[in-house]
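Field reference: "sequence" (input) and "structure" (output). Example, 3-demethoxyubiquinol 3-hydroxylase:
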Amino acid sequence: MTDTDLDTARPEAKPAERLARRPLPGDLGTEAQIARIIRVDQAGEYGAARIYAGQLSVLGKSPVGATIRHMEEQEQVHLDTFNTLMVERRVRPTALQPLWKVAGYALGAATALMGERAAMACTVAVEEAIDEHYAQQAERLGLGEADLKATIETFRAEELEHRDIGIAHEAELTTGYPVLYTLIKSGTRAVIWVAERI
């Protein structure tokens, strides 16, 4: 088969498809994209673990304490996994991690002080933002990162489980739920954007 035969055997890509395959100026390379994914996911799991720690400081001995502890334990597994990936892939953590330590704990404790439903409203808002984020990452990851994609999809399922637990514990009946939910979810999205870059 000649070069001409190969050219005619392959259907010509449409202009839009050709452009989609070419990186644009400013696009991150594959390694930089993976580093960004690992960095932001480690930061997110760290923040989530701190939120649950804050909630447990207030509600740990209440009837919902065991449920929050279960979610915190799952978040710790997620965090440990991303901590390991950071070492293996030589990815630096976000420079704002000390801020997440304080802010995550404060958010968890503050919502818990507002009551069990408010703590669960926080869980619903945070976990829905993380679900959207993980879904976008899983969609972008190719075959070369099958293990990372599988990890993200597993963790995403557990984040959705936490969201469902929050709803089952009447998160939506929190006084001012729409405002609280919107503020926390918007804040979580902003933190994700920052942690990817700094």
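Residues 1-21 have pLDDT under 50 and may be disordered.
The helical segments are 3-9, 15-21, 30-59, 65-89, 97-113, 116-140, 146-168, 177-197.
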